[in-house]
Design a protein that fits this description.
- By secondary structure, the protein is mainly β.
- It has one domain: UDP N-Acetylglucosamine Acyltransferase, domain 1 (3 Solenoid).
- Strand 29 and strand 30 form a beta hairpin.
- It is globular.
- The N and C termini lie far apart (43 Å).
Length: 243
């Protein structure tokens, strides 16, 4: 269903069974996959001097919530889900089942893998590289300018299965290795070791994530989190985790 107040370019490629809400603007450089929902007041295909001529591609079964702005030149796999008032700038390439929370801002030229979860009020700077099965919690910032203000941009990198807790700052060029846990309100100014906990300002290695126990009385390790948290992940993936 397409609301009569929506402004949709005749050049836009709209898939089957797509719902577009009131007062949306869908420009001609947009491709929306089947069974997707675009809620009210969204702008899809925004352009500037950096977008170039590449389209905005949104995979099937996606949900774009109200007041979100997605720029041309970006591409998303199936089941993209945004919160309200999300901004995703040009040249952002994300895999399938990317979820980004309300008021988050992705500054473009980013590479994002599959099944990445970004909570609300997160800012991801240009040239960030984010792997697969990542969790980034609210009010975290991935920075990219080593000596602001400048034209030098060095994006942070987050490897598979890592978790960045709320209110963290990741400094330019820092690599968060796989299976790391960055504790709340930490400032990470150097590369991390795989499977370790980092906490503080500046963040320090306080040991392996395996030492953290679930608070459910089982005595089991909380990490790797894939052993016990499976909500929202396909059965075939969970089976691999459980082997």
């Amino acid at each position: 269903m397409i609301h009569p107040s929506a402004l949709i370019s005749p050049k836009a490629k709209i898939g089957k069974n797509v719902s577009i809400g009131a007062f949306c603007v869908i420009k001609g450089n947009v491709e929306i996959g089947d069974n997707s929902v675009v809620e009210e007041y969204c702008l899809l295909g925004a352009t500037n001097q950096l977008t170039g001529e590449e389209p905005l591609v949104i995979g099937m079964n996606s949900l774009i919530r109200a007041h979100s702005i997605l720029y041309a030149g970006s591409s998303f796999g199936e089941r993209l889900i945004t919160g309200n008032r999300v901004t995703i700038r040009e040249k952002t390439i994300a895999g399938k089942n990317f979820q980004v929370g309300t008021l988050s801002d992705i500054q473009g030229y980013c590479e994002i893998g599959d099944y990445v979860r970004v909570h609300g009020n997160v800012q991801i700077g240009q040239k960030s590289k984010i792997g697969n099965y990542i969790w980034i919690f609210s009010y975290t910032i991935l920075t990219n300018d080593p000596h602001p203000p400048s034209n030098v941009l060095i994006g942070a990198r987050v490897d598979d299965f890592s978790i960045i807790s709320t209110h963290c700052v990741i400094l330019p060029g820092v690599r968060i290795s796989s299976h790391c846990l960055i504790g709340a309100s930490s400032v990470v100014n150097r590369d991390t070791e795989e499977g370790c906990i980092y906490l503080g300002n500046p963040a320090k290695n306080i040991g392996p994530t395996a030492k953290i126990k679930l608070r459910d009385g089982s005595g089991e390790s909380a990490y790797p989190w894939t052993r016990h948290f499976h909500r929202g992940y396909p059965e075939e993936i969970v089976k691999k985790w459980c082997k």
